[in-house]
Amino acid sequence: WEVDPLTGKGPILHVKEFHPTDDWYGLPRVDPAAYAIDRHNAASAHNKALLDNSGRPSGVLVFEPIKGSNGADQSAPPDVIKAAEKRLIETHVGPTKAGKPFVTSGNVKWHEMGLSPKDMDFSEGKADAARDICNAFGVPFVLVVPGQATYNNLREARLQLYEDTI
């Protein structure tokens, strides 16, 4: 970008906050909000994947004991359990794989685990992340997070945004 050598003016305005270890670049407002932004995006991706997969939660693999040569019940060998755990992690861990059915063979059963309506209340987690993001940018969360505003606090929030941030 071109900068006037006499006045130092250019097409970019560098707005910075105080940063105790970097007085040249300062502290951009997005840095304190970065974790909340990542959390909000991850919650959105996970929730969409869960809804895409019929809203089903994960479950547990149960290896049924088998009768050994001496007639006693034997568990599956450790290498079989490790291989099943590795396959389960590869195919079912992460936001894009939430709620996928697990296909297996042998003497293994899949037990689905249930979620209560409170566990499915993922919107509260997103609202919490949105509050953190709003706080970093000086925007009252009442203006952004749905369902938080009343007529009185909305008027006060607009005034606060104008007087304190703008």
Can you walk me through this structure?
The chain is elongated, with a radius of gyration of 26 Å. It has helices at residues 30-52, 78-92, 122-137, 151-165; strands spanning 59-63, 66-67, 73-74, 108-112. The protein is mainly alpha-helical and 166 residues long. The longest helix is centred in the N-terminal third of the chain and has 23 residues, at 30-52. It is built from four helices and four strands. The mean pLDDT is 78. It has a two-stranded antiparallel ribbon with strand order 1-4. It has a two-stranded antiparallel ribbon with strand order 2-3. Helices cover 42% and strands 8% of the residues.
Supply the key terms.
about 170 residues; mainly alpha; two-stranded antiparallel ribbon; two-stranded antiparallel sheet; 4 helices; about 40% helix; elongated
What is the N-to-C order of secondary-structure elements (H for helix, E for strand)?
HEEEHEHH
Going across the major beta sheet, what is the strand order?
A: 1-4
The gross shape turns out to be elongated
- The number of helical runs is 4
The helix/strand class is: mainly alpha
Sketch the major β-sheet: 2 strands, antiparallel
Percentage of residues in DSSP E strands: 5-15%
Percent helix, as a range, is 40-55%
- Cα Rg: 26 Å
**Cα distance spanning the termini:** 27 Å
Average of the residue pLDDT scores: 78
Strands, helices and their partners?
Elements: H1 30-52, E1 59-63, E2 66-67, E3 73-74, H2 78-92, E4 108-112, H3 122-137, H4 151-165
Antiparallel strand pairs: 1-4, 2-3
